[in-house]
Structures are given as C-alpha cells and as structure tokens.
Amino acid sequence: xxKLIFMFFALLACVAVQAQDNVEITLNNGNVVxxxxxxxxxxxxxxVVVVKDSGxxxxxxxxxxxxxxxxxYDDDSKEWITFVPLMAQxxxxxxxxxxxxxxxxxxxxxxMYEGKHVSAYIRYITTATNTKQxxxxxxxxxxxxxxxxxxxxxxxxxxxxxxxxxxxxxxxKPYPVMKDTVSDLDTKEFNKDPISLIxxxxxxxx
Length: 206
Prior knowledge:
Radius of gyration: 21 Å
Number of strands: 10
Number of helices: 5
Distance between the termini: 71 Å
Strand order of the largest sheet: 4-3-2-1-5-6-7-8-9-10
Order of helices and strands: HEEEEEEEEEEHHHH
Structural class: alpha+beta
Shape: elongated
C-alpha cells in the first residue's frame, strides 16, 4: 500500500514538473530541450537562453548560435510564441546613420511573415523613462525584415516612431523597387498593419 502511495505521489510530482515547462528549444544539431526559462532572452540584445531541464533539473546555457528555434509559453496570452535567432541591426536607421551596425551575435525575433524573397519579424525591446518624479519601465515592439539573399535583418519601424515616410525612404533606398510604394504610402493604414509593407515588398522582389 505504501509503495502504491509513493508511486502515486511520484507520478503527481512528475506531472507538476511537466506542467511548469514553458520553453522548448530546437538546437541546430536536431536535439530538443524542454524545461523552464525566464523570458529575458526575448528582450534587447540578449543572445543566451538559460533553461532548467525538465528531466534532469539541471540548468544549462544555450547560445543563440546553437539554437535553430524556440517556443516560449506566454502566461499573459496563454499561447506558445515562436522565436528564431537572427543577425540584425542594433537600431533603426537615421539621416546620420543610414546603415546601423549589427549585433555581435544573433538575437531573438518572432516571425510574422514568411515570404518567397523576404520575411518579417518583430522584436520586443524594453523602454524606460527616468526623471526625478517618475520611473517607468515597459516594452515596445520593433519591426524588422530580412531579404533572404542577405545576412542581416533590418529594422524599419517602431511602435512609437514618428515620421514614417522619411524613415522608410531611408530604409528602402537600397531597394529601388520600393520607391513608389513608400512615396504613395498611406501612413494611417501602415500604422494599422506595418507587416503589410513587407508583404508588398516580397511581391515586388524577383
């Protein structure tokens, strides 16, 4: 009887551990790691994921260069979110810096559109406002695209950015096929769906 009770509670403990899993990583070598991780990997320039393995209970560190993709369970949305590591520009381009330098290692993005020639992604970033009166911490989203024949993903929009047409003219200047599209852009419609611009871009590329 005691043995059965022990097995029952052992089974419950096993189920409880499995229920806590919030990350599933597919490595470049094909191995899959399941466990528990904090979501800090998805913000800013983080290029490492620390996972507590659900089987062994041990913590391991995985560099973005080792990871093919990962899925993270978001408690707020109650959904699994996919992330992929990409080499990417650090910032949005400006009049003074039209081709921002990339990060030293791949960082994590959520795929939003997979086209024939170009794909679109979003990247979560932290925001902070510090004054003598207030300290605010939050998140924002940057939009990126990656032409499949290129190595670096490029930022083209951020939720709080202004001057859409000027920014987009700088971003897409290397792609003459987009000149008319950007010039004729309806900024209100673009703000509603920034990914739509990349779908158009994909259709224009050959």
